TrEMBL record:
<dbReference type="Pfam" id="PF03109">
    <property type="entry name" value="ABC1"/>
</dbReference>
<dbReference type="InterPro" id="IPR004147">
    <property type="entry name" value="ABC1_dom"/>
</dbReference>
<dbReference type="InterPro" id="IPR050154">
    <property type="entry name" value="UbiB_kinase"/>
</dbReference>
<comment type="similarity">
    <text>Belongs to the protein kinase superfamily. ADCK protein kinase family.</text>
</comment>
<protein>
    <recommendedName>
        <fullName>ABC1 atypical kinase-like domain-containing protein</fullName>
    </recommendedName>
</protein>
<dbReference type="GO" id="GO:0016740">
    <property type="term" value="F:transferase activity"/>
</dbReference>
<feature type="domain" description="ABC1 atypical kinase-like">
    <location>
        <begin position="101"/>
        <end position="151"/>
    </location>
</feature>
<keyword id="KW-0808">Transferase</keyword>
């Protein structure tokens, strides 16, 4: 990481942390060579070879690996992949086809993370606020997902909450 005098110490630490996240996600999905080409090789963890993918008979293609790394890295890389999938003049057809999966099937945020974030946003445990919460999202997209719940104060009115990757919004359904 080049020395940037315009950044505060906290900004430098945050940038270093993000560089490590990107390098680790690329390596985890078999794209360590790309991390090396981008100058992120020094941020690669020493636990190489532990991909954590589910096993399958045929090996993953580079396009598969890029899509999975994009899913791991959050909304911005997913959005970039979605845009690239619509640009056959920039990426090969097989890459475009694989990146198009980012428009159709984005994995939801795991429920424990949603639960923690919801509790943080509400300032108290979610079970104190909701009579019922649906664990499976109604829909999931690159920037967030929607869950259904029933507010304790008004048992007959359902309430939808949208869990963005960074914040939770409550709205009547």
């Amino acid at each position: 990481m080049p020395c940037r005098p315009d950044l505060t110490i906290l900004s430098r630490v945050a940038l270093l942390h993000r560089c490590r996240q990107i390098a680790a996600a690329l390596a985890r999905h078999g794209l360590g060579y790309l991390a090396m080409e981008l100058g992120l090789g020094r941020y690669l963890p020493f636990n190489r070879g532990l991909f954590g993918h589910r096993r399958r008979l045929e090996s993953y293609t580079r396009a598969d690996r890029l899509r999975m790394a994009s899913e791991d890295l959050g909304p911005t890389p997913v959005k970039l992949g979605q845009v690239l999938s619509t640009r056959p003049d920039l990426v090969p057809p097989d890459w475009s086809e694989e990146l198009a999966k980012l428009q159709e099937r984005v994995p939801p945020v795991p429920w424990p993370r949603v639960w923690l974030r919801l509790g943080r946003e509400l300032g108290r445990p979610p079970e104190e606020v909701f009579a019922h919460l649906e664990l499976e999202p109604l829909a999931a997209a690159s920037v967030g997902q929607v869950h259904w719940g029933v507010h304790r104060g008004s048992k007959r009115w359902p309430l939808g909450f949208w869990c963005k990757r960074t914040v939770v919004f409550l709205s009547p359904v």
